[in-house]
Inverse folding.
């Protein structure tokens, strides 16, 4: 199935341009709307660079002293993440994604459609092959293997690609309900952050990747470069065995997907409606038929029904007391009327922290692992990055995405006030969890409970003083501030860069300084800087110097 | 609400979406914004609602310069984009309730108004249905009901007649628009459907390449274009196309 007609495009372009050149106004209009060649190339390159976290790891790890193992860990993690991502994304595209929705409207058979998606998958793995080749090449260079053992590099890259491709077909066939966000994304994240992990963490990950086939190939390659034992060379056998199952995987997956596509379009099936539940047709089953004889019973109380803060949870109750009537309305709007998540999240954070405290006190684990429950508890229980407010969610429109709040009469100040009050209370109620955990952790690491307690308090203070910045970031995400060049935006970003220096200095000072006085000055300076940034952005926003329209992502 | 646009311009990098637009709109009328694709209709509505920031020029409501930060003025304006914006899990009823809260509309008289709108738009069976489960036309009608119930002084609607609404919904909207205008409200909407614009509008504003080509009461245009083939607006568009060529 061909989706492009380059020859036709070229011919039409030439004829159209010739015709437009004759009309000055039309030609001018055409030139105004056309992106320059350089810009098109730059944008394509940008995407590629950001899409490949492994690329960055290679760049930075390649020049480090102990970079070899880091790269091998990164290869294994990236291969695992990309296997999950490509496989699940492939299934999503085939059975319920944009591609499926699009091709259903054209005279394309399921067979042709499936073929087109297979080709896309194969092409994406060819891109991954280049990355693997580059990565193993860098490891080989660092191990003085090249050029004598160029074959090993090629073999490792081919195996890694084939193994990943095979698994990317098996995984969605047997685990169709797996989600990209919860499976592939955390591993991509780990790939990227492994650059900054301490040596002990890399060692731990290096043994952990043996759990996944991508890790077997990394280990086998490492053994040839003297990074791992000779026996690990044998790991290549099970990896090759997986690759051999590729034809079988293709056969089974093709059969399963064809059947699923058949079911979607067969008579009397409502599968498609279920697939695109949030799109076109209403689900008739959900709509109760209304008899003309029985009038609907609802009153103004129904219309003005609002979520109950009092019964939602103890944190919600506390927050509600700090808000006035108008602020409650704004808070309910920004939370999409779903009040009640904060207490639940706090309970989960408390549970995670409690488990973490017990593990810290009893289990002989490497120190860096002991930090993880504390971080997880914080991310889950406290709005460290400003919290989740659906009112900021974007809605698609022509020309971009409009944040939901933009079309309703709620201002920057209204939303900020509500967020600041709610987030402050949520951080304060999370404070005992953090300080308690930090105290136990510091004791375990030999720094003493007092040290841990103080560090915990400092962590809470930092989370609080950074809130204005987080609130500003929430607003900024829904605007085109970085693409709007005018005096006001330039002045704002100039100020932001200027404020960045004392903010970073303040954060460092907060944890490094010994004296309470210096710590107080540091925390105050961070607060002043973040408040200034928030106020400056408010001016930009309220004066209407930026559009509440961001690019569709 | 008196609306004045003073030399309003809006640029999207090289493209001048609005070019020195100056208009005065009296309260209590329906104004159609017409123009070819890319003429700047949506940008004009977005500027009026405060979503998009003009590159230069001012918007004044009742003589007061309009800033996005002025929430009090924004409570007097409602804007419905081409795709209705709502939280997907909120039911129709909850969405209406939320919008009324945001506009500070309260009181039992609202109940009968909401009921009328739900009946008129055939939304009664859908009141407990999440917005995400509605068809495009139904979601549009639900969002429109909420804004009509809020009964703001100025209602800005982007392409309401290309929104997927059924004929009954379109007829009801036209009737509601007329009723609102009788109460002194102003409605500004963009459209490409000249027949509707000709029957519904008090004034038309024809735009092309970001500029206002015509802005006049419909009755005046009818006099000027008397005798031309087709409808008045069709004739006007024909002239516009010829002058561009």
């Amino acid at each position: 199935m061909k989706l492009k007609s380059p020859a036709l495009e070229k011919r039409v372009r030439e004829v159209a341009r010739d015709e437009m050149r004759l009309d000055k106004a039309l030609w001018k209009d055409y030139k105004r709307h056309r992106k320059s060649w350089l810009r098109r190339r730059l944008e394509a390159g940008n995407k590629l660079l950001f899409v490949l976290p492994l690329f960055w790891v290679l760049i930075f790890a390649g020049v480090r002293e102990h970079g070899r193992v880091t790269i091998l860990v990164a290869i294994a993690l990236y291969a695992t993440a990309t296997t999950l991502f490509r496989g699940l994304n492939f299934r999503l595209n085939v059975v319920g994604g944009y591609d499926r929705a699009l091709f259903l409207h054209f005279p394309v058979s399921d067979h042709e459609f499936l073929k087109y998606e297979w080709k896309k998958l194969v092409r994406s793995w060819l891109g991954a092959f280049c990355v693997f080749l580059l990565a193993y090449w860098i490891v080989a260079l660092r191990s003085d293997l090249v050029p004598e053992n160029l074959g090993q590099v090629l073999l490792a890259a081919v195996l890694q690609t084939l193994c990943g491709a095979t698994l990317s077909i098996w995984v969605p066939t047997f685990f169709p309900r797996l989600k990209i966000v919860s499976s592939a994304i955390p591993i991509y994240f780990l790939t990227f952050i492994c650059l900054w992990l301490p040596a002990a963490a890399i060692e731990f990950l290096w043994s952990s990747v043996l759990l996944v086939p991508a890790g077997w190939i990394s280990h086998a390659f490492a053994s040839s470069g003297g990074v791992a034992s000779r026996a690990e060379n044998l790991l290549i056998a099970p990896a090759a065995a997986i690759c051999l199952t590729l034809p079988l995987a293709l056969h089974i997956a093709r059969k399963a997907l064809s059947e699923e596509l058949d079911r979607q379009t067969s008579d009397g099936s409502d599968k498609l409606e279920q697939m695109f539940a949030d799109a076109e047709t209403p689900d008739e089953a959900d709509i109760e038929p209304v008899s003309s004889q029985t009038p609907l019973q609802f009153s103004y109380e129904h219309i003005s029904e609002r979520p109950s803060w009092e019964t939602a949870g103890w944190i919600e109750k506390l927050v509600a007391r700090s808000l006035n009537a108008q602020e409650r309305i704004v808070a309910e709007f920004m939370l999409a009327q779903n009040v009640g998540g904060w207490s639940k999240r706090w309970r989960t954070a408390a549970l995670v922290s409690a488990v973490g405290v017990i593990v810290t006190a009893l289990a002989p684990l490497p120190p860096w692992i002991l930090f993880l429950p504390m971080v997880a508890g914080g991310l889950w229980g406290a709005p460290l990055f400003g919290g989740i407010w659906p009112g900021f969610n974007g809605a698609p429109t022509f020309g971009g995405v409009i944040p939901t709040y933009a079309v309703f009469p709620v201002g920057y100040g209204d939303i900020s006030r509500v967020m600041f009050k709610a987030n402050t209370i949520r951080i304060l109620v999370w404070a005992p969890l953090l300080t308690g955990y930090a105290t136990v952790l510091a004791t375990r690491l030999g720094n003493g409970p007092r040290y841990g307690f103080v560090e915990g308090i400092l962590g809470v203070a930092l989370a609080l003083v950074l809130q204005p910045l987080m609130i500003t970031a929430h607003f900024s995400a829904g605007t085109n501030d970085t693409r709007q060049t005018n005096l006001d935006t330039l002045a704002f970003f100039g100020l932001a860069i200027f404020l960045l220096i004392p903010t970073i200095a303040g954060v460092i000072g907060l944890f490094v300084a010994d004296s309470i006085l210096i710590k107080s000055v540091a925390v105050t300076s961070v607060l002043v800087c973040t408040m200034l940034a928030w106020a400056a952005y408010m001016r930009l926003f309220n004066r209407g110097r930026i559009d509440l329209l961001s690019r569709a992502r | 609400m008196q609306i004045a646009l003073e030399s309003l311009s809006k640029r999207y990098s090289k493209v001048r979406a609005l070019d020195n637009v100056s208009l005065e709109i009296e309260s209590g009328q329906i104004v159609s914004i017409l123009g070819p694709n890319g003429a700047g209709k949506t940008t004009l509505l977005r500027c009026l609602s405060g979503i998009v920031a003009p590159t230069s020029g001012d918007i004044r409501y009742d003589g007061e310069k309009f800033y996005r930060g002025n929430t009090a003025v924004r409570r007097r304006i409602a804007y419905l984009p081409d795709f209705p914006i709502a939280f997907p899990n909120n039911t129709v009823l909850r969405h209406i309730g939320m919008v009324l809260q945001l506009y500070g509309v309260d009181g039992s008289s609202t109940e009968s108004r909401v009921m009328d709108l739900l009946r008129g738009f055939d939304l009664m069976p859908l009141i407990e249905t999440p917005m995400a489960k509605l068809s495009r036309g139904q979601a549009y009608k639900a969002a429109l009901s909420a804004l009509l119930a809020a009964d703001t002084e100025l209602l800005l609607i982007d392409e309401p007649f290309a929104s997927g609404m059924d004929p009954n919904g379109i007829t009801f909207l036209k009737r509601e628009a007329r009723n609102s205008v009788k109460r002194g409200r102003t409605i500004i909407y963009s459209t490409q459907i000249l027949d509707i614009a000709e029957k519904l509008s008090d004034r038309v504003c024809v735009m092309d390449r970001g500029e206002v080509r015509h802005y006049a009461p419909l009755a005046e245009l009818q006099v000027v274009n008397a005798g031309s083939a087709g409808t008045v607006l069709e004739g006007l568009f024909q002239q516009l196309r010829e002058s561009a060529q």
Q: What stands out?
A: Chain A touches chain B through 62 residues (CB under 8 Å).
